């Protein structure tokens, strides 16, 4: 289940390597438990440094009858003492305690994971969001939960600008929801995050591969003047041309290529400007440019400007 849906239960497993989502799941559980039992006692425990009997002792009823919320981290590095005590605890969980276990991945503790799943304990899936389509879903849900709307283009722009880091993406959603009114548009995103390296690279690349040379060079020169490194700009240019090469003349779907639907549609539109020979030539040029901006040329800024000029001129509008 999603971290957005988890409810308190005697034992909850938070599973997956995305630490940010795991923290959101734990925070949701804390909030829900405290709403019902404000005096709940929170205990943090590390399964890798666990001492025998610690879990049972912590979960035992207190003199004042407070509920217990026990969060255990580092299950992927659990020691044998924790494994034995956790398996025993599962057979008879404490009545007034909620045990939240976080396993980031790997084979360590498989016996416990199997026992947790067999017991019917809720399992919160916290896998890394690697695809842009997953990040777009995350953005839409963040704004939906905040009772705000965001345009499709604005969501794409936000992922392009800050999507490399999920905590940054969540913080951006929170900032936009708090600082603005009305529907979030592309213009709003550009105002707040248009200067990020990722966003700048896509501005340059989008203009260049569609043959808008003047716009591409203007965006590039502005980026370089404000201190943006040429390396990520070349990387985005290469990404765009590879995407065009993948979709050009092929009977494939976005899913086949591991692309978000909007990326696939955009690449198909941009592919209309390109023939195979020009595309291959520019991909080779970018390989040379990549080496140049990483130290092989005395003037890396000239190298990337030359590449942008050639790419824009090669796109047949």
From TrEMBL:
Transmembrane segments: none annotated. GO terms for molecular function: DNA binding; DNA-directed DNA polymerase activity. The keyword Nucleotidyltransferase applies. Signal peptide: none annotated. Its EC number is 2.7.7.7. One of its GO terms (biological process) is DNA-templated DNA replication. Residues 200-308 form the DNA polymerase III delta subunit-like C-terminal domain. It is an enzyme of class 2 (transferase). It comes from the Bacteria. InterPro entries: DNA_pol3_clamp-load_cplx_C, DNA_pol3_delta-like_C, DNA_polIII_delta, P-loop_NTPase. Keywords: DNA replication, DNA-directed DNA polymerase, Nucleotidyltransferase, Transferase. It catalyses: DNA(n) + a 2'-deoxyribonucleoside 5'-triphosphate = DNA(n+1) + diphosphate. Pfam families: DNA_pol3_delta_C. GO terms for cellular component: DNA polymerase III complex. NCBIfam families: holA. Belongs to the DNA polymerase HolA subunit family. This is DNA-directed DNA polymerase. The lineage of its organism: Bacteria, Bacillati, Actinomycetota, Actinomycetes, Micrococcales.
